[in-house]
Amino acid sequence: MRAVWCGFALGVVWLQQQAALPGWGGWLLILVVACVAAVVAGAFSRCVQFRFRLRSAVVWSSVWMVATCVGFGYAAWRAEVRLARALPVEWEGRNVVVQGSIKGLPATDADSARFLFTVESNDTNIAMFPRTLQLSWMVEGTPLPVLEPGARWRLTVRLKRAHGNGNFGVRDAEASLLARDIRATGYVTAPSAAMRLPGTAGGAGAAIDRWRAAVRARIDTALADAPHRGIVIALAVGAQDAVSEADWLLMRNTGTSHLVAISGLHIGFIAGIAAWFAGGLWRRSCFIGRNWPLWIPAQKISLATGALFAAGHAALAGFNVPAQRALWMLAVVALASISGRSVAPSLVLAWALGLVLLIDPWAVVSAGFWLSFCAVAAILFAMSGRLRVQDHERRDPEPDATRLARFRGACLRRLLGIKERIASGAHVQFAVTVALAPLTVYWFAQIPLVGPLANAFAIPWVSLFVTPAVLAGVVLPGPLDAWAFRGAHALLDLLVAGLHMLSGISWAIWRLPQPGSWALAAAAVGVAWSLAPRGWPLRWAAPITWLPLLLPSPSGPPAGAFRLTALDIGQGSSILIETAHHTLLFDAGPGPESTHAGERIVVPYLYANGVNMLDTLMISHADSDHSGGAPAVLAGVKVRQLLAALAPTNPLWADAHAANADTVSCAAGQHWRWDGVDFAVLWPDPGPLQGKPNAHCCVLRVSTAGEGAGSSGSGPAMQQRQPGHPLVALLAADIEAPVERILLGRDPDALHAQVLLVPHHGSKTSSTEPFLDSIDPLVSVFQVGYRNRFHHPHPGVFSRYLARHTELARSDADGAVRIEAAGPGLSLERYRDTHRRYWMDR
After folding, report:
1. Domain identity same for 662 and 728
2. pLDDT tier at 613 (50, 70, 90 boundaries)?
3. Nearest CA to 323 among 270, 380, 251, 273?
């Protein structure tokens, strides 16, 4: 079964990497391969003329191939069924009346609520209407109603198809939506017309959600605005939306983020306590005149009770992947023991792997899946070669030994036992740290070097003290529950104080660029090599396989060239410009007031691509869709200089000073050269800023030394240019027609550029015909949000670009765009072309 479930998992993972689901030809190929492999397995299992090892290898390889085909086909079938329920394009942006119930725990703040909505009926004639919607309810004059899990409502909503930002090295948000079966997102358009319907949703899921909501409400009452209230909520019901940004940053920097989730360790600990308590009561049934152990052994009662408590705790956690893994492992062990069978730990893990993927084939797109299963696999593999040797002579002292000698022997045995447990715990911590380091680099672009030390006290502290206190609050009645929750918060205060001490160490975090597939595979080999049992040859050489993982970030463009990456951050702007040895970030996207793109996309992109320091952070103007993410960038990476067109009272200047960055006001005439690439500011004029922010945006011109001879790219508009002309990119921010006319009147030749970051996202107030005629771009990049409320780009403006036959790139359709101006010309890469997955645009 190990080979079957592992092959099944391989097929599921393989499917999630595909750009398209298989057609009839693909299904036929899968069927043929599976049938041939099954025939080979059956034939070789009966052929005795072959050597046993050869026969066994062929049979198990064939079984593995059949299981892989089954896993691939199963995941593809589930994907076809789920993708079939999609909102048609023609219904995007239209009002729809839906009737259904609230699913899960709504997340609320001062002016809005976000929740999942299970649709029972709608007023459209769409046959396969999405079953689950992700909705927002904004405050519009009237207070938000109480949104209870399972409550039934009739709502008027405006929807759009499920869509996520696509950026190189950043998690695919669209895959996360698909994994949760969210096939449309939107908002409530007529709150006054919303109607609460009688009754509540039935089923176990709704009942569990109501239970979780009641527990969360009790915690909110007990802790109010306590700083670590979100962690208590996360440990109680698995909802992490209330965890503060400060707590998240601290735990990420110390490698303790896993403690916020209700992990398999917590569930196993609670199940162990429940099993011990139930077994003890069962064994002592004689005190009430019963002999229950004679009918059913106490061990079976313990296992069954532990599994039941694990199920309850997993339900309270919302059945996240680590909780499911722990639950299925405990269930398999319990069933095997009750039926009188013994199963190997690796087989238990394989069954848990298969059951998790049977229920949710999209679990493999989350970091929690890989971190949870790989951690347990590393522990099992590392401990498989460690044998415990007992000294029986020391355990059985001579009968005529003195009492003092027996006492000394008992003390010695106890000390040796403690030493053995410490050594075993250290070995487990080493195994988990080594095994998860490559995955941590892949998912988070960092290795917390203080992680082993932080976890050495954080794991037992949370598992032995904080989690029991939280669960005590869950089961105790009031007012005792408030005391338990406050006690858990006090324990968290002590933990956070210790983590702050560790996070202050200068070498606490090692930032590394996101590794490629080959570097990750080599690191995986090194993990298995280093954790192999003693006696394995050349274990000392295992770190050599980590060298590709630890290499510095990929080299920048050659001297005299530049690379421009326009990120997909929704409605807003953020562009990274790289030369051979320097980097400039032009705008930082929206911040907490909107989509949190600064900390959610911009900073993770910089980490994943090995950019840990910016020579210049250039903020074009004060609009939040350009400057809102700047505080996150200043806090996340080293910034040498802030160059901005901001009022003197703007708080970003103070943030830059706090981050030890130089501050310079953006003004026309500024010029510098990096690695043979020229940078020139064309606007605004020096002096006090005048007018609205769009009137004094920074306009940046970036140009090579003048060796461009042509262009190469992905579209017909990539025309040839005359030799000797420089390759130029013009970043126009949000300038409008008046500024365009001023720039045209000064020096039209300075505006000529092959790459244009379209002014003001393509609004109707910009991109005038004379301005475009002067630029004559080869590539025009629109940074716009998917179906944004401003309707950018304006159809009339977009048609001007179409008429010029330039290569058009839109972040809402193409994701991030990477342009490299090097050598003979330009190269253009669209994220959704080179990193396409089958769920995109479906």
Report:
1. yes
2. very high
3. 270
